[in-house]
Design goal:
4 helices; 11% strand; 106 residues; alpha+beta; two-stranded parallel ribbon
């Protein structure tokens, strides 16, 4: 991700969307919860990131484990997702007026 964020920093007027991110079940509950909090901190530290989407689905033609990115069946991970991302005001959708004011500040 570092190279991507460096590229973004070189193009500061371009908004960025993280179209898909997730953390696999193989990492274990505590590491997944920590990873989600760290991901949120990274998104907040890079103001060009204007949208993110968590990937909780299986890849098409998945030959490996199923539901590997699911957070909804693990209370600890789901709690971290809610606290770090879903219920954080930073991720509340902007109104058109707020988006316009934000772009005029630059």
């Amino acid at each position: 991700m570092r190279e991507f964020l460096q590229f973004c920093a070189q193009h500061p007027t371009k908004p960025v969307m993280i179209g898909e991110f997730g953390v696999a079940r193989a990492w274990g509950t505590e590491q997944r919860a920590t990873w989600l909090a760290d991901a949120s901190a990274t998104f907040k530290a890079n103001p060009q990131i204007r949208a993110v989407m968590y990937f909780e689905s299986d890849p098409t033609d998945n030959k490996g484990p199923t539901q590997q990115f699911q957070v909804s069946d693990d209370p600890t991970v789901l709690g971290a997702f809610r606290t770090s991302l879903a219920q954080d005001p930073h991720y509340t959708p902007m109104t058109a007026a707020a988006a316009g004011a934000r772009s005029r500040k630059k």
